[in-house]
Amino acid sequence: VDLLESTPRQIELFEAMGFALPRFWHVPLMLDAQQRRLSKRDGADSLQDLRYLERSPASVVGELAASLGLVSPGSELSLGELLGEVTLDALRQLRGAEAQF
Fold first, then answer.
1. Which of 26, 36, 69, 80 is 20 to 30 Å from the Cα of 86, by its Cα?
2. Residue 93 DSSP code
3. pLDDT tens digit string along 70-89?
4. DSSP structural state of residue 31
């Protein structure tokens, strides 16, 4: 919803540049344990912070996917592996959901 106002401008830009329009998909907000929105502006860890803490990419992907209920907690998988496991129906069920990270 927060980007709804900018969508017409994005569509106009794609058309002006001669690009095919992408399919837009809403991604649920990520919340911390206190139900606050995760954002760099509010001091949440960035991917660079997680790298500094020696978190593997597979563990981050797994934790994000688990927070949405797409895989079991503790899973470690690559983006390619995640794409192979997630169905469009599972993604449709996320509409309006909020994920806790």
1. 36
2. T
3. 888 999 999 999 988 888 88
4. E
Q: Please calculate the CA angle 9-11-14 and round it to the nearest 5 degrees.
A: 110
Residues, the chain: 101
Q: Which residues contact 57 (CB under 8 A, 6 or more apart)?
A: 78
How far is it, in rounded angstroms, from Cα 87 to Cα 82?
10
What's at 93, amino acid-wise? Q
CA atoms within 13 A on the CB side of 77: 19
Beta-carbon contacts of residue 28 (< 8 Å; ≥ 6 apart): 68, 94, 96, 97, 98, 99
Please state the pTM of the whole predicted model: 0.62
In sequence order, the β-bridge partners of residue 30 are 99
- Condensed to tens digits (0 to 9), the pLDDT of residues 27-54 reads 667 777 788 888 878 888 888 888 888 8
